[in-house]
Specification:
The chain is α+β, with helices and mostly antiparallel strands. The protein has 11 helices and 8 strands. It has helices at residues 28-35, 86-91, 132-142, 163-168, 171-261, 269-309, 317-322, 345-350, 352-359, 364-375, 411-414, and strands at residues 11-18, 21-27, 47-56, 62-72, 94-98, 103-107, 328-332, 336-340. A 6-stranded mixed β-sheet has the order 2-1-3-4-6-5. A two-stranded antiparallel sheet has the order 7-8. α5 (171-261) packs antiparallel against α6 and α9 (352-359) crosses α10.
Length: 415
């Protein structure tokens, strides 16, 4: 890194950000010591830090900013594999906002001159009251690092009369040029803000979708366990009913034998009566067990119904989706961007292609046939040997206008 004490070449510093504020400042040479592993920061152990390389002119005006990430291990030492050339990137940054010395050179995730380092960068926040550029500018003005400010030398201006000078002295033309410059700077800042907001939105949407997938997987696992439990209970009840039917049949058979036995079995009436009493007790006991199991089945069915129709937990992802404070947006060819209603979320994740086909007013096979043509618009005619023609053809961008066998064939094979 450059030496922070060489005022003639400007100054370099590294700011560690926490939220929208500068939490720690150090000169570039100190940060180099952290990268070399000579020093560690115990309070940053196992933490990913959002940092900013700040390049200043010798009169302490911001010239370039590089917003980068760096990981500190369990000992508070910088990741030894981190090799982002932040100084080189700072020299190649695109135009950013004006921080007092004209448009700065800016490098961030949405504005990276080298795509291979994009994932190691982050986007600053430009919303009012939470603006990283304002926080950095205030920290530079406070100058806690005690950089020596060198005021620029004022050259003596000797007026020279010339036609060109007279032309340039036109106040209206000068004001117009200044307005164009301010407008161009404002447009650059707004484009940067749009890029950073889009990046934040993509990250937030990805997090919400990941949390939703995990929550849906948990609910499906819980539902599968309940269904298995219900199936086991149902099989057990069927076995009990079968055994009870067998006992009833035995009882009726014994009763018939006792009636038809006549006088020869009268001496066994006492034993038969005792056995009948035992059988009745067993029958009643089995009947009570069957009733208890029926009650359990009813309870399980009720629990299953409540799980299917229960309201999502307050402040959960599904609760925000149902109250429409958060929306899920999906994109499919032929449909475009679709905002998913809460009631359609499960159907969509079960089969996104079928859902997109339904939104197009088509069945799934027809939509898949059009999608294959849309993604690879070539002739699909096959000769007798099974070889496809493969001639490029005109893509049909609307599913409803697609005609299989015609629009997916070249003119030669249409005839």
């Amino acid at each position: 890194m450059e030496s922070a004490g060489q005022a003639a070449e400007g100054y370099s510093a590294v700011f560690f950000m926490e939220g929208s504020q500068v939490a720690r400042e150090m000169r570039a040479s100190e940060f180099g010591a952290f990268l070399d592993g000579y020093v560690g920061l115990s309070d940053l152990a196992e933490t990913e830090v959002r940092a900013v390389l700040v390049e200043l002119s010798d009169d302490l005006l911001v010239q370039a900013l590089v917003f980068f990430r760096i990981w500190f291990d369990e000992e508070g030492r910088a990741d030894s594999h981190w090799n982002v050339p932040i100084e080189a990137l700072a020299g190649r940054g695109a135009k950013g906002p004006d921080m007092g010395g004209g448009a700065i050179r800016l490098v961030c995730r949405s504005q990276c001159p080298d795509p291979q380092y994009k994932e190691d960068l982050w986007d600053p926040d430009m919303t009012p009251g939470n603006n990283h550029f304002q926080a950095i500018r205030k920290a530079v003005e406070v100058n806690n690092l005690k950089f020596r400010k060198i005021e620029p030398v004022q050259e003596e201006n000797i007026p020279v009369l010339s036609a060109q000078a007279e032309d340039s002295a036109d106040p209206e033309e000068s004001a117009a040029a200044a307005n164009r410059s301010r407008l161009a700077q404002l447009i650059r800042e707004q484009r940067l803000r749009i890029k950073t907001l889009q990046s934040v939105h993509r990250d937030s949407l990805s997090d919400i979708q990941r949390e939703h997938r995990l929550e849906m997987q948990g609910l499906r696992s819980e539902m599968a366990n309940l269904e298995q439990k219900y199936e086991r209970q149902r099989l057990r009840n069927e076995q009990l009913k079968k055994r009870l039917a067998e006992r009833n049949e035995q009882y009726l058979t014994m009763q018939e034998q006792m009636v038809s036995g006549g006088e020869d079995k009268q001496r066994d009436d006492a034993n038969a009566d005792a056995e009948m009493v035992l059988l009745r007790e067993q029958l009643e006991r089995r009947q009570r067990e069957l009733e208890l199991r029926d009650d359990k089945i009813v309870a399980l069915e009720q629990e299953n119904h409540e799980l299917r129709h229960r309201e999502p937990a307050e402040n959960s992802i599904l609760d925000h989706l149902k109250r429409q404070s958060v929306f899920l947006v999906a994109y499919h060819p032929g449909v475009g961007h679709v905002t998913l209603p809460y009631d359609d979320i499960e159907a969509y994740f079960n089969n996104p292609t079928a859902y997109a086909a339904d939104r197009c007013g088509m069945n799934e096979p027809a939509y898949r046939e059009w999608l294959e043509h849309y993604e690879n618009p070539v002739c699909t005619h096959e000769d007798e040997g099974g070889k496809r023609c493969g001639e490029p053809i005109l893509r049909i961008s609307q599913p409803a206008e697609f005609r299989p066998g015609i629009d997916d064939c070249c003119e030669k094979h249409q005839d």
